[in-house]
Amino acid sequence: MEKLDRLVEDFLQSYAVEKNCSHHTITNYKADLVQFQLFLAQNHRENLSIIYQDLEEDSTEEQKSGDSTQLKDHLIIRRYLAYLQGCNYAKKTITRKLSTIRSFYRFLTKFNYLENNPISKIHTPKSEKKLPKFLYKDQMKDLIESPDLTDKLGLRDRAIMELLYSSGIRVSELVGIQLKDLQLSRGLILVTGKGSKERYVPIGSIACDYIIRYIDLSRGTLTKNKKHSYLFVNKFGDAITDRSVRRIIDKYMHIASIKLKISPHTFRHTFATHLLDNGADLRAVQEMLGHVNIKTTQIYTHITKDKLKNIYMSTHPRA
């Protein structure tokens, strides 16, 4: 067990360096592997050599040669996938967990800790093709205009929502913005995305105006003389967290009486949907969103109901 734990740590360290992953990603990967280990311990204790017997230094040659072939059977992995489905995990979550285990086994075989990779026979489940959740323009307007601008926190909240909608940045990118990253006179902000990759993102004049108002009228008071340069701060003067941003949006969804369940990421979906709906180039949107693969951006090429109706009304002879 101790050697296995060390190998998990070695894998995570290696993966973090190779893929330049964030701490959040590595934490998720570790949780996935721990969950898989617990499943094996609770349901296949006699079959633990699927990863244990070949890894434990004190395993006998008889153990390795006898049970090992049976224990590495890919059917155990299939049982684990069935277990995850029985726990009602979303297909996207199951796919991610399988991807983590697949990467770990590749690591074990690459460095000769295992001879065969039992997961090589497992196909990745087909992902659900759900349309991204987004807000219509009138809904977004009502939401963004909800904060009380006479209140310092309200002005901050307006600036946050204006920036999220104007730029389409991730909430993790928003909370990491520092004052030095702002180039408001040029309508640009430098953000650090996944894999610590930096990119410049254009933002509109309205968002720029509210960020300037927030800096001039609210931020100085809210920071309470704390020595940091993060753009957005909480009521204690510390850098705001992604969880706080989620609570802020929940608060104003309630105030605006919008009966939908959304997250900060919905602003990103809405940003991309509205751009493409108005004829923006797909490659340009890909750059703005910081997507490595254009296929990720293509999920936003769905047509909104309003545009679909307009197309129908203007083209069908009996509309």
TrEMBL record:
GO terms for CC?
Answer: cytoplasm
Record has Amino-acid biosynthesis as a keyword: no
Q: Which residues form the active site?
A: R170, K194, H265, R268, H291, Y300
Highest taxon of the source? Answer: Bacteria
Main subcellular location of this protein, as a coarse class: cytoplasm
- Record PROSITE patterns: CB (PS51900), TYR_RECOMBINASE (PS51898)
Q: Which CDD domains match?
A: INT_XerDC_C (cd00798)
Domain Tyr recombinase, residue spans = 130-313
Where does the record say this protein resides? Cytoplasm
Molecular-function annotations in GO: DNA binding; tyrosine-based site-specific recombinase activity
Per UniProt, the keywords (alphabetical) are:
Cell cycle, Cell division, Chromosome partition, Cytoplasm, DNA integration, DNA recombination, DNA-binding
What InterPro entries is this protein classified in? CB, DNA_brk_join_enz, Integrase-like_cat_sf, Integrase_catalytic, Integrase_recombinase_N, Integrase_SAM-like_N, Recomb_XerC, Tyrosine_recombinase_XerC/XerD
Q: Which GO terms describe its biological process?
A: cell division; chromosome segregation; DNA transposition
**Ranges for domain Core-binding (CB):** 2-109
Q: What protein family does this chain belong to?
A: Belongs to the 'phage' integrase family. XerC subfamily.
NCBIfam families to which the protein is assigned, alphabetical: PRK00283.1, recomb_XerA_Arch, recomb_XerC
Q: What does this protein do?
A: Site-specific tyrosine recombinase, which acts by catalyzing the cutting and rejoining of the recombining DNA molecules. The XerC-XerD complex is essential to convert dimers of the bacterial chromosome into monomers to permit their segregation at cell division. It also contributes to the segregational stability of plasmids.
Q: Fill in the subunit field for this protein.
A: Forms a cyclic heterotetrameric complex composed of two molecules of XerC and two molecules of XerD.
Q: List the protein's name.
A: Tyrosine recombinase XerC
Q: Which gene encodes it?
A: xerC
